[in-house]
Design brief:
Blueprint lengths: L12 H6 L14 H21 L2 H12 L9 H17 L6 H9 L2 H4 L2 H10 L4 H19 L15 H7 L4 E7 L5 E6 L10 H14 L3 H6 L2 E6 L9 H15 L8 E6 L5 H10 L1 H6 L1 E5 L2 H9 L6 H8 L1 H33 L10 E3 L3 H4 L2 H14 L10 H17 L5 E4 L4 E3 L2 H44 L1
Helix pairs in contact: 4-7, 4-8, 5-8, 7-8, 9-10, 12-13, 16-17, 19-21, 20-21
Amino acid sequence: MTAPKPCLGVMPPQLDQCLTFGVAPRNTDLRGGNHASEDMDDVDNNLAKELNKLSFEERENILHEIHGVAEITKETPEFVSRCVEKLLEAVDRLPQRRRVALDRAIFLKPSMKEKDIRFKLMFLRAHNHDPDKAAWCLAKYFEDKLELFGEDKLVKKITLDDLSEEDMEEWHKGVSTVLPCRDRSGRPISFVDCTKMDFSHYDDRMLRCSWYHIMSMLEDEATQLKGVSTIMCCIGQLNKAAPFHKVQKIMRRDGRVLSNMPLRANSSHFCYDNPSMVPIVSTIRLAFGKKFGLYHRTHYGSDVEVQYMLQSYGITCPLAEKSIHGRDTFIELHQRHTERRLFKDRQEMEQMLQESEATGIIPYPSPNDVLVGRGVPYQNFSGNRRLNDLIESKFLNDYNATAMDKFEKTCLYLDVIKTVKETLGGRFLGRTPEGWTVVTETAARKKVNSAFRSRLAKKSKETKMSLSSYVKKSNIQMDTAEYAV
């Protein structure tokens, strides 16, 4: 079979309106006239221009990466230390507007600044130890994570237990999983079944599942060094219909987010058997950036033909062939993979809690903890806001700074501390260079006292503003009445 030419096409109106993603209407020209034909050529021309900019050695390295025969950089302790130091310098050079999420992450997890070398190495390895590219990717990574998961999970390792019920429903569809075998060069094989994607009701659920899928693969150091072989299989009828322009928008957005992750996707294969997939192929190649396009290969044909094509790239795993040919096998693999991940995630969480109890150092605060300190980073934390809401709703009316003696105030403060610990499940934490520690009862009382004062000041200010507004309104009404007379 001759593969159709990939394109980004400007779709003809009749095709864009009736295109069922995966089924092409009859008697429809996929090229869409001269405009779409020009777009087809543009994609290939852009990739050709990028290749022409590269030297012969660079092009040869790309081929070696795709086939998994590239040399791995030797990381001596001195080399790693030097790279991490340059990465920190590159982070300091980033514009402040690009460091908002990253700075917030460093505040919540203090050890990230000087320690967490393994985490920083992921970004360096993904960009061939280029500190500037790694720093930019690190900042974008936390921007996207903050948008997808919120501040409560900004520095937390995402596990399956962190996904919502809707996310888990999407996860159990089995769109993506890691096959329990590797390619010829030892890289893990990430298998994505595009026929299970529902583009008609697409939201962030699939993206969060993809995020977890990628980060779980990167726990293996060999995967960080060698990269990942990805198979995107679109052989057969797709799950739901969706207009091409909607699919294109989704692919571009997801491509932007996933390309900021510290993954070396140096061997990507898109397999399809339907000509209507041609525009989507080009959209994927462009959505993930020019680097992805250089390492991306498309395979058009039946399931048997695609299997032979993949063998030329070192993917000879029989389980991959069964996954392409029989989806039942793939579902079973995904279920076993999910069970393994749940067990491993919970085991690591228990280990982290045990280490925290033994050392007294808490890596990062939970959403219900109260952070003891001054400044905007402390005030904006969710636990501190909950403390203010608790005081304002339950305790502020019982507080009288002039009438209450010291003993009565102390008892009230202790009631607040008890409510935070027992009802909300929070702790009062202080920040250290290594992490967070539980503060003394005296420090916790001072924090509560400060919260009472700030609530009273805010209430007094609101009362004055309300009174001032009432007086101005009354004066306006009096002036209007005198003018009418």
